[in-house]
Amino acid sequence: MELIIGLLSGAVGGNVAGGLLKNLNQGTLINSISGIVGGGLGGTILSGLTGGGMAEAAAGGGLDIASILGQVAGGGVGGGVVLAIVGVVRNMMAK
Fold it and tell me: Which residue ranges does UniProt annotate as crossing the membrane (predicted)?
């Protein structure tokens, strides 16, 4: 369940970052794909940094609000970061 939350929030984060950073915007499809990849990575990294506490809560069926918010934050930030990287690379290749 936490992976799904991370992927969805990553897609949203990628599109929000694309909307805010017009020069890195790659269109809705690329923004979403970059966000999904970043959301998965961001959620995994955040879970590893917190000692897997969120994964243990999810495995026990106890998804509390803190773990959900943590996944949304990690996924959203990860999605935005990966979109920024993709945007910079694509802009450099276009020149």
Answer: 68-89
- Give me the residue label for tokens 């999605």: 79
**CB-count exposure of residue 73 (10 Å: 0-12, 13-18, 19+):** middle
- Say how far apart CA 57 and CA 29 lie, in whole Å: 32
Do 14 and 83 touch, CB atoms closer than 8 A? yes
Q: What pLDDT score was predicted for residue 49?
A: 79
pTM, full prediction: 0.78
Cβ atoms within 10 Å, residue 68: 17
Q: Is 33 helix (H, G, I), strand (E, B) or coil?
A: helix
- The alpha carbon of 23 is separated from its chain's Cα centroid by a whole number of angstroms, namely 20
Helix-, strand-, coil-residue percentages of the chain, each rounded to 5: 85, 0, 15
CB 26 within 8 A of CB 83: yes
